[in-house]
Structure formats: C-alpha cells, structure tokens
Amino acid sequence: MLSAIGLPALLIVAGLIWRYASQRQSLPCPVWLRWLVEMDNPFTRTNRAAVILQHLRLQPGMTVLDIGCGPGRLTLPCARAVGTTGRVLALDIQAGMLQRTRDKARHAGLTNIDFIEADITAAALPPNQADRALLVTVLGEVPDRPAALRAVHAALKPGGLLSVTEIIFDPHFQRRSSVLREATAAGFRQAGFFGNAIAYTLHLEKAESIPVS
Ligand SMILES: C[S@@+](CC[C@H](N)C(=O)[O-])C[C@H]1O[C@@H](n2cnc3c(N)ncnc32)[C@H](O)[C@@H]1O
Q1: Phi, psi of 199 (to 5 degrees)
Q2: CB atoms within 10 A of CB 170
Q3: pLDDT tens column, 81-121
Q4: What domains, with CATH codes, occur in the chain?
Q5: Atom 20 in ligand 1: which residue has the minimum CA distance?
C-alpha cells in the first residue's frame, strides 16, 4: 500500500511526466477531460471566465472569435455580452468539444454563435471582421504557433484585440516572453497585461502593418 508520502510523490512524478510529454508534443486536450476545463479553474483568479471577460470590455454588436473554445466556458458569456446584434465564432479542432458548446448554447437559448470545426492554422476565417479574439490555454496545444497567430491577426479588424491567457498548471503552458515574441512577429503589439508569471492574460492589439524583420 502506498504511504502518505508515496502517493503525493507518485502524483507529482506523473504530473511532471505528463507536462514533459505535453511540451514535446502539442496534443489537444482530450474531450473526456473537458470537465476539468469546465471547472473554471479553482487555482487562480486570472483564468476565470468572468475575469477574462471583464478585461475584454465587450460591447453589444461586437464579433468575438473564441479559438479553441473547448466546452464553451467563455463562448457562452461572450455571446451574452455581445447580444443579439453581435456574434461569437466558436472554433475548435475537436467535434466533441464543439458539440458540448452547442448543447449548452441551445439549453441557454443563445442563437448568436457560429460553430467552426477547424484547426486554427488552416481555418478559412473571414478577414478583418473580429473585434476580439480569445486564446485561453490553447496556444501550447497548437504545433505551429506562428501560423496560428498570423491566422488570428488576419481575422481581426485593425485595432482589434487578441486576449491570450496562460496558466502554469496547464501542461502546455507558454511563457509571456515567447508569446509576445511570436505575436510581435505576426504583427501584434502588447496592449495590456494582467496577472503574474504563474497565470496571466496578455492583450495584443492588431497593429496596422506587419513589422519588417
Ligand atoms: C485546454 S482547452 C481550453 C478551452 C477553452 N479555451 C477554455 O479555456 O475553457 C484547449 C482547447 O483548444 C483546442 N485546440 C487545440 N489545438 C487546436 C487547434 N490547432 N485549432 C483549434 N482548436 C484547438 C482543443 O481541442 C481544446 O478544446
């Protein structure tokens, strides 16, 4: 039988192995683990849907792109905030995640959400249409992050805002410095930062032109 020390030690080792494997291979969060995503994070305030939304300052009529929407933790509050004159494009690579969001939206009576099953790096998104884009604990699951950031940049209106949230407990955690470096190369500039090294939300504004490197 595992001792009181043995079990926590085993869990820590398992967690470290999972994290190491996740950093080496960018795999999407499995659909069967969606309940973990839906918990709205008991560990830090930064990653809570309400906090992320508060920073976004959504207005009725806006178009929001929720990339890697998962089970809709942010999709539904965004849809409520932009109202019937606005739209949310909920995009995910996994049909099971989209189905969960669709079911929740139907149950909530929300009709202003479009569902897109696609890889963000290959999605055919309407250019220059979105006022806001969200990447909440998604970037680390995308193997080609520069391509993902370029796709988001193209989909945003000039002056539009991308909100990236990362939390260190996520095995795919991305450091602020690497997100900022890759985002700058894609044509974004930093417009805000909330949180700390453990959990943060970085706001990136679509600059008018891509910097020449
Ligand atoms: C950890 S979940 C986060 C879900 C949601 N953003 C939230 O915070 O509640 C990451 C989601 O990103 C999706 N994802 C991973 N790679 C993707 C890609 N290349 N394109 C679109 N979605 C992707 C996964 O399927 C998963 O639903």
Answers
A1: -150, 130
A2: 22
A3: 999 999 999 999 999 999 999 999 999 999 999 999 999 99
A4: 26-206 (3.40.50.150)
A5: 119
Sequence-distant (6+) residues with CB within 8 A of 75 are 66, 69, 88, 90, 101, 105, 113
Question: What is the structure's pLDDT at 205?
Answer: 98
Spacing, Cα 68 to ligand 1 middle (Å): 3
Question: How far apart are alpha carbons 166 and 59 in whole angstroms?
Answer: 24
Please state whether 28 falls in left (phi above 0), alpha (psi between -120 and 50) or beta. Answer: beta
- Residue 185 near residue 146, CB atoms below 8 Å: yes
- Centre of ligand 1 from the C-alpha of residue 139, in Å: 8
- Answer yes or no: is the C-beta of 141 below 6 A from any ligand 1 atom: yes
Which of 38, 134, 135, 141 best tests ligand 1's pocket when mutated (most atoms within 8 Å of CB)? 141
Most confident of 17-31, 36-50, 174-188: 174-188
